[in-house]
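note to self — DONT lose this again. spent like an hour looking for the file last time. sequence + predicted structure for the chain T wanted, 180 res
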Amino acid sequence: MVSDQRILEMFRNESSREEAFRILIKQNQKDIYYHIRRMVLDHDDADDLTQNTFIKAWKNLDAFRGDAQISTWLFRIAYNESVTFLEKKKKLMNVPMEDVEHKLIGVLQEDELYTGDFMQMQLQTAMAMLPEKQKAVFVMKYYEEKKYEEISEITGTSVGALKASFHHAIKKIESYLLNK
């Protein structure tokens, strides 16, 4: 594992810039992809958003101040990309929630890469019904086991607000699953 400091040193040196970025991708791509995938569900969309995340990172790594870890910074970019994508998709769909649910279940059922059982599919469907920010907090806390402080750095939201969002997400998921 190459340290953030070393990656930044290499990136700022023109002769090792591409190697540094390859290392950065190798160390973070899987986590970033799965974070996005849990948010948007579809493999192709997650793949595109992961690529967009790393393109933005490439363009802005020179300006990275080092106030946080590079991985936290990448998660923030991925979070913003995912939320923006979901908001656009929701506006484009402009259909009743029941239709969204059926479409999401269809996406999961047709996805060759999805290996979850029935209960996992129900959880994924319940998560898809959450507002984007609640969904993001739930994904980071439940799946990625991030601490509220790190989620706060990624989302730019206070710890108290994150705790409230997580609590609301849990209640909505619980209600969905109990009524299914």
